[in-house]
Amino acid sequence: MEGVSETAENAPRPTPENHAPPAECDVLIVGAGPAGSAAATWLARRGIDVVLADRAPLGRDKTCGDGLTPRAMAEMRRLGLSEWAGERISIQGLRLRGFGTEHEIPWPAGRFGTRGSAVPRRELDRALAEKAAEEGARLHAGWTARITGTSDVMGGVTPSEVTLSGPDGAEQQISARVVVGADGARSSVGRALGRRWHRDLPFAVAARSYMTADAHDRPWIGSDLELRDAAGAIQPGYGWVFPLGDGSVNLGVGALATSDRPANVNVRELLAAYVPKVREEWGLHGEPREVASAFLPMGGAVSGVAGPNWALTGDAAGLINPLNGEGIDYGLEAGRLLAGVVAEHLSSTDPLGAGALTKVWPQVLRKEFGPSFALARRLAALLTYPRFLPAVGPTGMGSETLMTAAVRCMGNVVTEDDADLVSALWRGFGRGHRLIDRVQGRPLFA
Ligand SMILES: Cc1cc2nc3c(=O)[nH]c(=O)nc-3n(C[C@H](O)[C@H](O)[C@H](O)COP(=O)(O)OP(=O)(O)OC[C@H]3O[C@@H](n4cnc5c(N)ncnc54)[C@H](O)[C@@H]3O)c2cc1C
């Protein structure tokens, strides 16, 4: 007996990496970024059997600015990570600069609170995935999903075979009643199931880096709206410095583009040209480290985000704000919404009819994010015209009132309950633009 218990004690503890996934589950979520982990947490809280698989081991990096708006912080609290988030740097607002002007604009007061933050994604995503596991999701890190899609009788595509490949060549076929693709901008799940990303609508290309900085604990985000390349030409985007409070900052640049008006710039070179502009102000030392760049699909500019028994969320569904590149909050919020939709679907007596995710999920996304995305994506499209920003930038930056309103709208801290003029205008224009999209046959998430 002694020998048996010794063997059990000496056996390696199961970790997200070393144990095989099950052969079946109610919901398989592919991708444990903010969108997938949030969905897994909310589903597990409803008592649903959920497997959360990510191809990377826990604590992976993700190319990102690491910035969290007050709205994202509010969602972290809902997930039960208040204490964890409370120990991170507190960011009060933005220091906006450009066209000869500078404004310090605090986050607006409202139901989300006035505290933002910035946390390296290695830490943030680990905390979110561990939270999902703590709530009961079966987490398998280091397991890559491969999905084969088959055309169904309704003219859609459904996942017919799902295989998870793990360490040392391990493979497991898994059967799930619902598959969720939360696997990022390139979404292999989306590709297998017929997602299309419309690059004639605005998207962004951005690069981030880390730098050692004296002002690493400054409670303001630095945001430079007059972003110039090495030749001095203004680019349609912005440069950022997000203080991380750990001796370093996340420094990066992003530029908007469409397939007709591609970003005429190499973002890594743009980042290199940006560093000298902020070196002294932030007390930056050495050269940028861990420079990495990526595309950002934005504003719901994708079609095919759901089928009868599958759905895409987060970047895979284009859930990024076209005006500031923020996607973490949208992923977290969408995870909560998707859990509700999937729970209803699983209990529906007509899961392929009225309860089919094909119809319900795009409707929910349009209702929740449609108006602000429709307006933001039109404004972003205007910014891709080379003459637009130089023409309006100086006037816009000259007005503190306008910039305060812009921070509020761009930071996504306007809600349906707000009754003031700025939010009424933002919502009204948003609905108008959604209508125009519909008339032009370009609805979001269609
Ligand atoms: C340069 C840059 C700066 C940004 N700055 C900010 C910012 O400051 N604030 C902000 O809110 N947003 C920012 N964003 C956007 C933000 O990074 C994304 O919106 C966010 O990461 C989306 O989360 P997600 O969960 O949808 O996808 P991801 O975070 O990309 O997670 C997808 C996960 O899926 C996994 N995966 C992929 N394929 C498979 C597979 N086949 N099998 C298993 N797992 C798989 C990946 O390993 C990954 O962990 C920035 C983006 C970029 C590129």
Brief description of this entry?
By secondary structure, the protein is α+β, with helices and mostly antiparallel strands. Helix content is 35%, strand content 27%.
The major beta sheet can be summarized as: 7 strands, mixed
The fraction of residues assigned to DSSP E strands is 25-35%
Helical content class: 25-40%
Mean pLDDT: 89
Q: Could you tell me how far the N terminus lies from the C terminus, measured between alpha carbons in angstroms?
A: 62 Å
How many β-strand stretches? 22
CATH homologous superfamily title of the largest domain: FAD/NAD(P)-binding domain
Radius of gyration: 22 Å
Question: Number of folding domains?
Answer: 2
**Number of helical stretches of at least 4 residues:** 12
- Numbering strands along the chain, what is their spatial order in the largest sheet? 5-4-14-17-18-13-19
Attached small molecules: flavin-adenine dinucleotide
Structural class: alpha+beta
Global shape: globular
* CATH architecture group name of the largest domain: 3-Layer(bba) Sandwich
CATH topology group of the largest domain = FAD/NAD(P)-binding domain
Low-confidence residue ranges: 1-6
CATH class of the largest domain: Alpha Beta
Pfam families: FAD_binding_3 (PF01494)
Organism: Dietzia timorensis
InterPro entries: FAD-bd, FAD/NAD-bd_sf, Geranylgeranyl_Rdtase_fam, Geranylgeranyl_reductase
Region (Disordered): 1-22
